[in-house]
Amino acid sequence: MFTGIIEEIAEVVSLKNEEGNLHISCKSAITQELKIDQSVAHNGVCLTVVDIKEEVYTITAIKETLDKTNLLELQIGDVINIERCMKLGDRFDGHMVQ
């Protein structure tokens, strides 16, 4: 679950279309803290980290997600609002987004 409060921003550094899916590679100050299979909200869309190489991580948006969001409009150099999921027991501002 997420609070809806932006934690950080990420810069889009690569976009790759593959069989209707979009692989989005981003650079962020928190990349080193991320883990493969971790859920991270990108402009409010929950996506899973599938790869991490140094300061760049990659997420994949499937066709259904692309059909229902504006992620296909992303361009290299754009910035995305990101938020990691809540930790159980932490104080949270905003509201719970499920």
Computed CA radius of gyration, to the nearest angstrom: 13 Å
User: What is the helix tally?
Assistant: 1
Question: What form results from the Cα inertia axes?
Answer: globular
Distance between the termini: 5 Å
Structure report:
The chain is globular and about 40 Å long. It has a six-stranded antiparallel β-barrel with strand order 1-2-5-4-3-6. The mean pLDDT is 89. The chain has one helix spanning 63-68, and strands spanning 8-18, 21-28, 39-42, 45-53, 56-61, 79-84. The chain is built from one helix and six strands.
In a few lines, what is going on in this structure?
The protein has one helix at residues 63-68, and strands at residues 8-18, 21-28, 39-42, 45-53, 56-61, 79-84. The protein has 98 residues and is mainly beta.
Characteristics of this structure?
98 residues; mainly beta; six-stranded antiparallel barrel; 6 strands; globular
